[in-house]
Write a structure and sequence with these properties.
Glycerol-3-phosphate (1)-acyltransferase, 53% helix, three-stranded antiparallel sheet, 497 residues, disordered C terminus, 2 domains, 11 strands
Amino acid sequence: MTLTGWLALGLGLLAAAAVTLWLTRRARAVLRERFRRAARNAIHQFRTRLARYQLQQHRLAKDVLTRDATVAAAVRAHAAEHGLSEARVWRRVNEYIDEIVPHFNVLSYYKLGYNLAKIVLNLLYKVSVDYQDEAALERIPKHDVVIYLMNHRSNADYIVVAYVLAYGVQVSYAVGEWARVWPLEYVFKSFGAYFIRRRFREPLYHAVLERYVQLITRNSVTQGFFPEGRLSRDGRLGPPKLGLLDYICRTVHDPEFTRDIWFVPVGMNFDRVLEDRSLIRELIDERDRPGRLAQLGTVLSYVTGNLIRLLTGRLKRYGRAAVNFGTPLSLRHWLASAPADVLSWPKERRLPELQKLAEELLDRIGAIIPVTPVPLAAAALLSFEQTAIPKEALLERMDELRDRLLEANGKVVRGGARIGDIWDRAWRMLRMRRLVVVEGDTVVVLPRGRPLLEYYANSIAHLLPIRGPRLPFHKEHEAERDLPRLRTGGWGAGSGA
């Protein structure tokens, strides 16, 4: 080939490369514009107010935190204490920032997350939503910061509340380390969730986490977290943890932050908690917690089994998933009655005062926990303290307990229905879980069912003391043999309930 030919070939290749690059950039620009348009449509469809900060959160947060004076002081202290160079400690800080800070994506949250939650929740549950004081929620000023505080019953709590609040609110959750596995980590971060390490006491890490939480609070990011800090193992409300609450409250200590923070209590309850048996096993023996591979196997088996039931038309709902929103509490109103400058006190003096706020918030959450059919039936069954209970007496006891709950302003789901209908809905789940059987006109509590009945009854025990202190769960419950001999058939098998 002549020199002219080589030059022509080279020019042709350069032209082809230039055209390919232009087409690639053009295609990317078109895709970006389509994604932006879809994101804008999603925001309009869900009537959501998003601060510009939320769409640029990762870049802005990293820039602010690396220039933060509190973080810098923590770096110097950590370097001096451990004999490390500040450059090395800053690298660790950057790792913490990348670990904590999410990269919120509108399409991921409102297209993928919402639609997936809608499908899954409506396949598994009938979702109920109620408001104890809707007028008070509507009176919260639009420019103020809203924090949702929830009781922690199930890992499905994240999905339920996000689904219920999707029209109007995007909630940024504090998520534990359990979700830091692929692909959950990427998914949760794209939903705007930030990760926290529980029981990790390093001051440097907590300096970064505290300043990040205060940064998003100052920028009006709506947050959700669980004051108990972890899933309830016995079904009861647990004692409050103060870490995140302290971080959020201390935001108002910043003189440039002039708005208010509103804590909205959220009560949740389920006719079936997906993890209930695993939680009870951990309560009996904390060493009985399965490893990650065993947990993954359980999840895959559960998903596969339910998928087969769905495809064969045999999938049945797990009853109710109920959410109740309570009366919000203004932080500045609470501070007006607290000791002066309490938020500027040293931590050891400050936390006992914040404990009072945490307990008040937890009391508000407990007061609005919905009473679904299974917890009501479990409470009635256990109130007899015997194995075999006449069905008529059980229905009378359920009716009595419901009346007492309504008198105490408790939220009984479908509280106006016939008590027989409520029992029928509970019975479907109790029978499916093999917790009780019906022999003629008698309801019999099976030995292996008692711990689960205790678990569900405990979810409303603070609303309705049904008897004296109960014995803790113990494997001896599974060893009872003093049951009447059961025959096949009977009311339960043939009722079609």
